[in-house]
């Protein structure tokens, strides 16, 4: 069973099985008594009564209530911390028992980056669900990284560096990045010969997370250099900026997995192919302290098996101008080697 859902729907639990701990964790996440009541299929008065029973038993006020929201008192923060730990330990106990079975089953919560998750991971989730019908998958795609611990996710599939020291990671796929442009753009505006020439070109900017706007980084002698570029077009969506590059609007930095087929067809060409752009390898991240379940291990292995070679790797030397090839110097791309270290050891 697969669920593609919003944040609020992911928090819904069965009222009959919801413990006081789960109720309070839900209330703290939603910061709304009415929201918690809806998620538990309760009336607001019933949810208020349930909180009152907990507070009376502890002889402490756990939340401050207004007409619009709730906030935790110091006692409420303490209760939430212990409740989260207890619920997590119970879940690990259940998973340890169910994980002993040969056939993976149970709930698997997965987060992925928006574009890649939609185009590449979602079809794999479909195939995995066919192979393991007893695993219930909740798959959420977001444009920004999520807190796996707070969001109760089993794993996230994302490009780049380890975002949180509380996480462990396994690399699924190497993913170099290149400068590229359409033949139409290069015929009209010329091909840059040096990195500094990019300052005089139209660059398409892909805004990602909190990266500095228009700052492109490249590697020289194992050191990262930065260049501030300009362009008339920018977007936070990778598919959009790629379309603009194909339409001839400028030079773009794009991942190998998304670029390879357009290089093969000739719709895009590498620009400054011997310039090394920091790579953004694909990793699956998971909470460090949590023992992996059989279903989580099965899903990660499935991803590794199906994402090892989804495209023909780009041969940089095929895109080096002839006059440079005659120097006898073979161009090598260091982006992949620069990220071979497992994120856990960075």
UniProtKB/TrEMBL annotation:
Signal sequence range: none
Pfam families from the UniProt entry: HTH_1, LysR_substrate
Composition bias type Basic residues, residue spans: 322-332
Keywords from the named record: DNA-binding, Transcription, Transcription regulation
Gene Ontology MF terms: DNA binding; DNA-binding transcription factor activity
Domain HTH lysR-type stretches: 24-73
InterPro entries given in the database record: LysR-type_TF_proteobact-type, LysR_HTH_N, LysR_subst-bd, WH-like_DNA-bd_sf, WH_DNA-bd_sf
Region described as Disordered: 322-346
CDD domains according to UniProt: PBP2_CrgA_like_9 (cd08479)
Homology family: Belongs to the LysR transcriptional regulatory family.
Name this protein carries in UniProt: LysR family transcriptional regulator
Organism ancestry: Bacteria, Pseudomonadati, Pseudomonadota, Betaproteobacteria, Burkholderiales
């Amino acid at each position: 069973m697969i669920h593609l859902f919003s944040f609020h729907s992911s928090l819904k639990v069965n009222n009959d099985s919801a413990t006081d701990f789960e109720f309070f964790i839900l209330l703290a996440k939603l910061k709304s008594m009415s929201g918690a009541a809806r998620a538990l299929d309760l009336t607001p008065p019933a949810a208020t009564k349930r909180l009152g029973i907990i507070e009376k038993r502890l002889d402490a006020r756990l939340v401050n209530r207004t007409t619009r929201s709730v906030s935790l008192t110091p006692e409420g923060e303490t209760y939430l911390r212990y409740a989260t730990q207890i619920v997590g330990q119970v879940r690990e106990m259940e998973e340890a028992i169910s994980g002993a079975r040969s056939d993976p089953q149970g709930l698997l919560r997965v987060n992925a980056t928006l574009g890649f998750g939609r185009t590449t991971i979602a079809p794999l989730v479909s195939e995995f669900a066919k192979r393991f019908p007893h695993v219930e998958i909740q798959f959420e795609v977001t444009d920004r990284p999520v807190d796996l611990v707070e969001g109760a996710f089993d794993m996230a599939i994302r490009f780049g560096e380890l975002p949180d020291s509380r996480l462990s990671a396994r690399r699924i796929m190497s993913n170099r990045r290149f400068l590229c442009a359409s033949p139409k753009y290069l015929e009209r505006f010329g091909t840059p010969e040096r990195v500094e020439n990019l300052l005089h070109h139209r660059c398409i900017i892909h805004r990602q997370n909190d990266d500095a706007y228009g700052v492109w980084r490249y590697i020289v002698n194992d050191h990262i250099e930065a260049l501030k570029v300009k362009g008339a077009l920018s977007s936070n969506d990778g598919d959009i900026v790629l379309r603009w590059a194909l339409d001839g609007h400028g030079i773009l930095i794009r991942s190998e997995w998304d670029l390879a087929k357009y290089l093969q067809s000739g719709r895009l060409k590498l620009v400054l192919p011997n310039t090394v752009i920091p790579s953004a390898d694909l990793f699956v991240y998971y909470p460090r302290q949590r023992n992996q379940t059989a279903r989580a291990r099965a899903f990660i292995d499935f991803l590794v098996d199906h994402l090892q070679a989804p495209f023909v790797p780009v041969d940089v030397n095929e895109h080096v101008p002839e006059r440079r090839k005659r120097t006898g110097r073979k161009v090598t791309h260091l982006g992949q080697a620069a990220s071979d270290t497992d994120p856990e050891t960075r």
